[in-house]
Every structure is written in C-alpha cells, then in structure tokens.
Amino acid sequence: MSDESRRDFALSCPLPLSEYPRVQLAHGGGGRLSQILIEKLFLGAYGNPALRQLHDGAVLATGGGRLALSTDSFVVRPLFFPGGDIGSLAVHGTVNDVAMCGARPLAIAAGFILEEGFPMEDLWRIAESMRDAAAAAGVPVVTGDTKVVDRGKGDGVYVNTTGIGWVAEGVEISPQRARPGDAVLVSGEIATHGIAIMSVREGLEFETALETDSAPLNGMVERILAAGGDGVHVLRDPTRGGVASALNEIAGQAKVGMRLEEGSLPVREEVRGACEILGFDPLYVANEGKCLAIVAPEAADAVLAAMKADPHGREATVIGTVVQDHPGRVYLRSSIGGLRIVDMLSGEQLPRIC
Amino acid sequence: MSDESRRDFALSCPLPLSEYPRVQLAHGGGGRLSQILIEKLFLGAYGNPALRQLHDGAVLATGGGRLALSTDSFVVRPLFFPGGDIGSLAVHGTVNDVAMCGARPLAIAAGFILEEGFPMEDLWRIAESMRDAAAAAGVPVVTGDTKVVDRGKGDGVYVNTTGIGWVAEGVEISPQRARPGDAVLVSGEIATHGIAIMSVREGLEFETALETDSAPLNGMVERILAAGGDGVHVLRDPTRGGVASALNEIAGQAKVGMRLEEGSLPVREEVRGACEILGFDPLYVANEGKCLAIVAPEAADAVLAAMKADPHGREATVIGTVVQDHPGRVYLRSSIGGLRIVDMLSGEQLPRIC
Which terminus of chain B faces fewer neighbouring Cβ atoms within 10 Å, N or C? Predict the structure, then answer.
C-alpha cells in the first residue's frame, strides 16, 4: 500500500487509530476497551441487524424456525486448573452462550490452534475433557479443524468452539428487553472461576480446594424458561469482566438503570478473602458456570425456584432491580445505605481467564 | 495427576503416544499425519455419527430440515498477500466448506485471537476485507468473539470462522457416495493459492502478478446442484494437502480407486514454473477457490457446463474417473501412458498456508 492510500484507508476506520494504534491486552478483557473495539471496529466493518444485537450469540430467523449461533475462542492459562481445563471450559462457555440466547444447544464445532511441540498427551487430556463436558451437557461435537503454528507462535493450544441451537417459539431473550421493575437474579456465588485461576497463577493456598465453577447451564435455562415464560427478559453468563460489566452492557443497551444490593451478592468466603489479598472486586471477576436472569417482577419467584431446583443453581438469589433512574448506569447500595457507581471494567484485570 | 494415573490415562489414548509424543507442524498440514491425529485422537475422544463422516463440515438433521456446520481456524502467513489476506481467506474458506456440504451458507461467526501490540490499522484492514468478502458471498458475519494474548504468544492475528447453512431437500453430498464410473471434475487451475503465498515468502517474481485464487464458491455449488441434481455425489475444496490429499481421503472413505490423467490437470504456466523451482508437485499444493466435483457419468457434461458458466469456474475440466480397481488409491496416468501412485501428502509441505 502507498503511504497515501494507507492514510485514506486509516481515515475510514471508525476506531480512532491515533488513540488506539495497537492492540492492548485490555482489548480482550471484557471491559470498556473490549466494548470500544467491538462497537467501533467490528460493527463499523460488518454491522448487520443480527450482529448489532451485541448479544454473546446471534439469533437468526430461518425458514425452519429461529437458530442461535455463538462463537468463543479460549486462551486460558494455565491450560489445566482446579476443577477443569481449557477443553471443558470451551464446551461449557459455548453451550452457555447458546443457552443465554434462550436456545436449546444442538451441536458444537471445535477448532484447535496447536503450537508445534505441544505434548500429544495433553491434547488427549483436553479432548477427553471436551468429550466428557459435551456428554454431560448433551451437546455433541460434530465437526472440527486443526491448525499447527510454529514453536513460539502460540501457547500450547488455543481452542475455538462455536455452538448452534434452536430457539423455541415464543421465547424472546434480548438485552433490550430489560425494563424498570424487573428483578435481577444470579444463579449462585460469583467470582469463583476467576479466583480459582488466579490462585493457581499466584500460588495461593486455601483450606478447601478452590475449584472453577465452570458448568453447562443449558439445563438450568430450560427450567428458567419453563417457569418464567415470557417474563424472562434477559439471560447472560457473566464471564470476562464479571457481573459488573455484563450488567453495564445490558443497562446501556436497554437504556435502563440497575440497583444492586451489596448485602445480597453471594460470594464464597475463600473467594472474598482471595479477592482482598489480590486487590480484586468480586463484581469484576469472571464466572463460567453462573447465569444472570432479568425477569418481570411477577415471574421472579418462579424463576428463582427453578434456578434453585437445578444442580448448578442451588445458591441462586435476587441481587437487584432494574430502575428507571440513571439509564445506562449500575449502582450498588452498600450494607450501610450508601450508593456507589459500579462502572464497566476499564483496562485489563485478569488476562486470559477464559 | 499422579504418575500412575498419568500412565493409565495415556494408555487410554487411541493415538500411540510413544510414536507421537509431541505435536509436529505436519499434524496441521492436511496430509497423512493430520489424518492420523483426527482419526485416532479426536474421533477417539468424541466420535459421533456426524463427526465420523469426516467431511469438512457436519450435516445435522433437525426438526426444521438439515443444517450444515463447518469451522476453520486461519493461521496463514503473511497476513496480507497478493489477491487477499487472512480476512477474505477466512470468509471464503468457511463459505466454501459449508457449500461443499451441498448447503446454502446462511451466516458466519468470527473469532479473533489477537496478539498484544498488533497494529489496530491492520486489524481494521482485515475486518474490512472480511466485510467485503462476506458481502460478495452474500453471507453475513452475525456474531463474534475477540481474545487478546500476551506479546510473543501469538502471531499478530489468528481468525476462526464457523459457518452454518441449509441443505435443500434431496441433496445428498458425501464422500461415501463416490462410485466407479463417476467423473472427477475440477473447477479450474490448481495450486495457485499455495504458490501465491510461497512466492511472497520466498521472494519469487513473475512476469504477471501471481495472486491467490481465493474466492467464494457458494454460487458455483448452486449451479452445480441445479445442473447435476442427484448425480452430484461429492463436492470438496482441495485446500491443505491439495487435490491429491482430498482425492485420497475420498477414495479411502468410499473404498473406490481413482485414475487421473496427467495431461488434463490444469496448472497455470507460472505456477508450474514456480513449482519446479520450489520442488513442489502441484497436486499437493493448496487451493482456496477451487472445487472438486465427483458426479455420475450421465451428469458430467451438465455439471461441467454449470461450472464453466460461473465466474470462478471458467477453466473447469474433467481430470479423471472413479474406478473399481485399487480401492483407496489414486493413480495418475502420465502423458506417455505410465501409471504412478498419487499418495496422500506425508509430512508438511507448506506450513501455515491457510
């Protein structure tokens, strides 16, 4: 490219390149910089109605019904961690993203980017773990692809999983549907996955083993939809960027406010302790087996009961309310009554957590 | 893991770990070692009827019809090359894999693994190129994911694309359907993509610019199916491993032999020359915008005419025949009448060609 055409070209980019000349780790962190990258650069390039929904998956109307499609690349390190590994995480993450579209996952495609020299035995462990996770979720891996890159150009293995699923008639799950008065529910204790990973990296020890909460949530979503019907407005698994970033995204898209009650946020004691040691706020730490549900007030009790009836939702609870005030903002009411803004994660907190 | 459980574990792997203790570049090359990895390790882990078809995509029967799903990760280097870049390649590759299932591509999901420090401007160029390729193919990018890995743990950008599509009623495309008497057609000159990439890497110069043949083939597949109907048995885009590896795979799966006529293989003059300089056999060099079709003899003329009527198929030609002899083997008859075995690519010829 000539210098001139390069300049013209750069001018067409809706992301200000002088401000963001290079990719930073935080562009993958699930917070503000991720949002800017996606909304400016990717939507700028190929925005279309399905993509513009900015859900974790797309719902497509087809002749034969509505189809959900979701993709995720997994770059977690270490590859093996307490309670899981990159393989089970890749299956759960994609099964859950499809389920969060209100869909019943149908099949998974798996793409591997392997680094030359990666131990074959570790690849087999990961493949076995994916198999077990897929079997537990009831969603088969039906196609795949393998690429190998030269030594030093990868990090052992990266896994991409893409899932498809069917959306039942009448189900309408979308961040835009959050409305004032809705209850905000979470399916259990937050921040466990992120802290389990960080504790391995940092060499923290706990009295009881701290394992990832990574789990398939498609069964729970079926219970939620059966119990709450049209009263189920939004579903979201708060992964990178945690509960805070997920709720900020939804508040921004639905143009509503949210108020969380600090005392109601479920956090395991060891996780809270580790957060204090590491300087993290549990609201920003990644989860992998948790679901946020935003539901009409009249459906809240039934949905909460449905979550609690699921093996992965026993600690489910109501953590807040959707409000009319301060649209686009999430507030937290502390135990002593003060209000503080819960902003979106800015910068990178926990690189390569999933 | 204890040493003992590690031993037990390794014993369960259907791939002999003592023989293949580590991933080699050739495990991603599309030849014999790729096949061993897929058939032993991945099928061993999560074989199911859809995956066992070993097509480049899966066809799934659903309540609302049959759905095709295909995934591919792209690790090509350089990222930008004559006639294309990793973005257009990622769109074409996946559109084509879905089309080779006999399906009409419906939507694409895109996953990016970015290396910290990657120039944002290059990312925008790639996103724009994907947009243009998606628009030209008529297949929207509807969902995506972005991860960032630390500097030195990637190679600028890796792109995964996954496509879904509908298979029309009555269409049955599968490698198992190749049968003696069928004609083997190719939609144009072979080996162009691989040589275009290699010539950049090796600094070769040609009188005319040698560009990749990367192109979307979904339109051509529609023409082929309309012209050949049930007589269209197998479709395949011969990417990594080239025409030789693709035909070997099909011959093995259908338990038939194949005989190719050397004189009929279309290869551009510059490509043939570059192959001689670089020591490559065009039959093993990757293509990105070419399609193999194996069709019943009575459908061959109509399918050939349909290919030629498409802008990407003007040089289409018949290159061989499916035979009963030597099942699982592909032979080439030379211009002077001798026969030689065309084996599957063994080892790695062109690393990171797509």
Answer: N
